[in-house]
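All the exercises in this workshop are built on plain-text protein records. Instead of coordinates, the fold is spelled out as a row of discrete tokens. Once this layout is familiar, the rest of the handout is easier to follow. The record below serves as our worked example for the rest of this section.
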Amino acid sequence: MLRIPRKLADAAIDHACEGFPLEVCGILGGTEEKVSTLFRMTNTDQSNEHFMMAPTEQFAVMKEMRAKGMEMLAIYHSHPESPARPSAEDVRLALTPNVSYVIVSLQDANNPVLKSFRIIAGRIEPEEVEYL
């Protein structure tokens, strides 16, 4: 289960809306399986179909999280024109173990959808999201 404060879930949705029509991406950090921080990342691909996080930003975020006693709990990105479910590329690139993969869909611009998944060895498992 992904446990996230509503304000951080809304921040991920806001990030997706601001980045439209391109995909946006970021990292959710926290402790004890509870998200406490959202880190916006740069999508260096500048694409509406895929994303790649800037490596220097990733390194800085990981260093900051370690210094604060946090861990990476989730990677999030948006799907500007498709549903909130992992694409074949999302599954292929889900290489980070023990994290949630959060997708914000803007397919219906008036009703953004945030969903979370676990992707293990190519298998997609929907994950419950608990808003705090």
Summary: The beta strands are 2-4, 25-31, 34-41, 71-79, 100-105, 113-120, 123-127, 129-131. The longest strand covers residues 71-79.
